[in-house]
Specification:
The protein is mainly alpha-helical. 62% of the residues lie in helices and 4% in strands.
Length: 497
């Protein structure tokens, strides 16, 4: 089969698998199970649907590209209210990730069948299929990472300036999606330095790739007065972790402990990629490194897992997995970064089989890991399902109350975050709310409610800024609804009298 037909067939397969998985998840409400998924969708919505629309609504901690790409879908009221708006960007990214992985593997291994094995090991992973049906950032980063890998191996063979430009674009996409994209830049620049016949090529890539991090630093400096607000600001992961430690919380596993950080990450990787895929990958890695000399692709794809281990050690980033303290689920999706190198290594093993059975070997490599999930749900879905049970229940109750009692245009005070899900389900446009993203107007209402709080409704957690402002303001608010769900803060809904 011609190379173009192979790629077209791969894209068609990926599209069909993506559509089926996304439809399955959306129809069952899984798309917004994860609290971060809810937040990503609502941030995309508030960029335009806000009392203060504009760039500032992008925020500071999460990088902007996923939210910007979601805007056209999040602005469709029906799609936003149902959560379906979150299942457009990630499925498209899944298809791109699989296609670029296929193309890169075919070039590295000089085998379309090996590339098929790589694509199947990636695309048939149930955790991948779940995450590609959500508005999370993993699939967009996977697409950027695969495109960057493909660009570098294309350049190795062609020395084409267009490969450098493609690498620069892919690097910027990665750096505007997840911070590990920043970590990749110097390694890719060194790769260009050592493989380019014209050394200025490496400087060109570095200059292009630096644009995204510099733009984000400038955004933080302009809107928050601190270029590193995303890293050390009050809502950064590091600051939240330190506040927890100050309250007596136990340190996260791996905090300044390299051995423990690696232990927890690889435990998560076994659950996300599956022990079967890891075994295939370990055997395939020997073939990839020593028979196919695929040193650069394997090193490059392992950089993201190394970044997570470093983050667990030094930046207050946790991963919790069952069987290790505290025996719970948290951030298991970070092990998605291990799926790509496992798939790429696993595909190499196909090349040692006789030509007549290589296609069968590729299909076995792709399907075999599925046996791990026959008797257990994918861990990323399980984490979202367990950790969101209480939030989904109080969101449902709050949305039902607001839907029955809130009159459009009357205004509602809330602190964004998880509470925004109640407005989304109730069909209340965010521009009718006054929230923490509205800057000076929000601060005035919270600090001097007697002068500046005019909303008819208020939605908050007991004891938070909203509840405190309502209770100490001279304008009287009546508590209309209190929602108590085990394992979550008490939700309170007030109406102005």
């Amino acid at each position: 089969m011609k190379r173009s037909l192979q790629l077209a067939a791969a894209i068609a397969f990926l599209s069909l698998v993506s559509f089926a998985a996304a439809r399955f998840c959306v129809s069952r409400g899984y798309t917004l199970y994860d609290g971060d998924a809810e937040a990503h969708l609502n941030i995309a919505r508030r960029i335009l649907d806000s009392r203060t629309p504009g760039v500032e609504q992008i925020g500071t901690v999460w990088l902007p590209l996923p939210h910007l790409l979601m805007i056209p879908f999040a602005m469709r009221d029906k799609w936003w209210q149902s959560g379906a708006a979150g299942a457009f960007v990630s499925p498209a990214s899944f298809v791109l990730a699989g296609a670029f992985l296929f193309a890169a593997a075919r070039r590295v291994y000089a085998s379309g069948v090996a590339a098929l094995a790589v694509m199947l090991m990636f695309a048939l992973n149930p955790n991948v299929l779940y995450l590609q049906a959500t508005p999370m950032t993993e699939m967009l980063f996977a697409a950027s990472l695969a495109a960057l890998l493909w660009s570098t191996v294309w350049f190795r063979d062609s020395q084409s300036i267009f490969a450098v430009l493609a690498a620069g674009i892919a690097s910027n996409a990665a750096s505007l999606t997840r911070y590990e994209g920043w970590f990749l830049i110097p390694f890719v620049a060194l790769y260009f330095w050592f493989t380019a016949k014209r050394k200025w090529i490496a400087v060109l890539f570095g200059a292009i790739a630096a644009l995204a991090p510099l733009a984000w630093l400038a955004h933080n400096r302009f809107y928050y007065g601190n270029a590193l607000e995303f890293y050390n600001g009050p809502w950064s992961a590091l600051a939240i972790y330190h506040r927890g430690l100050a309250r007596g919380m136990k340190p996260y596993p791996g905090d300044h402990n390299w051995r423990q950080a690696a232990q927890y990450y690889f435990a998560a990787a076994r659950l996300v990629a599956s022990p079967i895929a890891i075994a295939i990958a370990m055997a395939g890695a020997l073939v990839a490194l020593f028979l196919r000399r695929a040193w650069w692709p394997m090193f490059f794809l392992l950089l993201a897992p190394l970044f997570y281990i470093w983050s667990m050690h030094s930046s207050g980033t946790p991963i919790f997995v069952p069987g290790l303290w505290p025996d719970s689920f948290y951030n298991t999706r970070y092990a998605m970064a291990a799926v790509l190198p496992a798939a790429f290594a696993g595909g190499a093993i196909v090349t040692i089989f006789p030509q007549r059975i290589r296609a069968a070997a590729a299909i076995v490599c792709g399907i075999a890991p599925l046996f791990f999930w026959i008797s257990r749900p994918p861990v990323c879905w399980r984490e979202a399902q367990v950790n969101s049970a209480a939030r989904r229940e109080w969101t449902r109750q709050a949305a039902a109350f607001l839907r029955a009692n809130y009159a459009h245009g009357s205004g509602i005070l809330f602190s964004f975050g998880d509470l925004t899900g109640a407005l989304r389900q109730a069909g209340i446009p965010l521009r009718e709310g006054l929230h923490s993203g509205n800057g000076a107007e929000w601060m005035a209402a919270i600090t001097r409610p007697d002068l500046f709080l005019h909303e008819e409704w208020a939605l908050g957690f007991a004891g938070d800024d909203v509840a405190t402002a309502v209770e100490r303001g001279k304008v009287h608010y009546q508590l209309r609804k209190r929602i108590i769900v085990k394992g979550s803060p008490v939700v309170e809904i007030y109406q102005r009298e």
